[in-house]
Amino acid sequence: MPMCQQRHLSNFFAKITTLSNDLHKHMPLTKTPLRYPGGKSQLRPVVKSLIDRSSTDFAEYIEPFCGGSGIAMDLLLNKTVERVWINDLDQGIYSFWHALVAEPDRLMRWIEDVPLTMTEWNRQREIIEGSENVSGYDFNLGAAYFFMSRTNRSGVIRGGVIGGKEQKGRYKLDCRFNKTRLLGLVRAISSESDRIRVTNLNGLDVVTKPVFPDTQPESCLVYADPPYVQKAEGLYMNFFEESDHVKLSYGLKNSLFPYWFATYDDDPLIRRLYSDHDPENINVTYSAQVKRRAAELLIMSAQLRDTLV
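Structure for site-specific DNA-methyltransferase (adenine-specific), as requested:
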């Protein structure tokens, strides 16, 4: 790598370090209605910096493991990209986003009418527990997923309710369910529905198989934020085994899309799988039960690194 490019990259990663160090002091207000464990909304300034520093004009932004889609919604609403493609294999996540894009009025009526009580929490939890055989779009499942994400601690779908089942805690189950703000977000995002693609595919297929004929890989930026290696089973409905992480690393390195980056928990397995891509440490702040900072890895394709100026 030429010395001047090395300096550019050093400056870029120094800026990322500064941004990530500042994020724990000023957690930005998210632009997604869906709470999600390990969500990366706080990395929006980092991603925006990456896009600004790249010599490529990215028309489409893709998340193969979208979860809460905080960054995608920020880029969409700020018109940083022309289109976003959000994908998740989890039926609940997919159903929520599909409902928002395809049936926004129905979703907004549901948000307005749903009671924020333990009786309703138990009813919505039953929908989640009975969803194992659901395939394709299911409005009720998407709504239940949304409800649990807003009323459970840290947005963990099968986690405990905020305030406890007796609702004797300092905070109650409705403390993260500001209907006015959530309706505003749904309304704003759904107004851009013609610029949103929502799919329910294996994330690996998104990066390795042609899905939409009008997608131009050279003008796409892919952000892979897969399930963590550590403690994944307790956080996600669909978690990865080691073999899945191995397959994804191969898929990204041989992706249809030359410009991709990924974030992962700092684990020896990931360092080994991506040792040829020089993983960089970034600090991320989470509020899973208590606010904490975690070291994560930022991994970029060689082609994306080469575009940074």
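Residues 163 and 171 are 5 Å apart (CA to CA).
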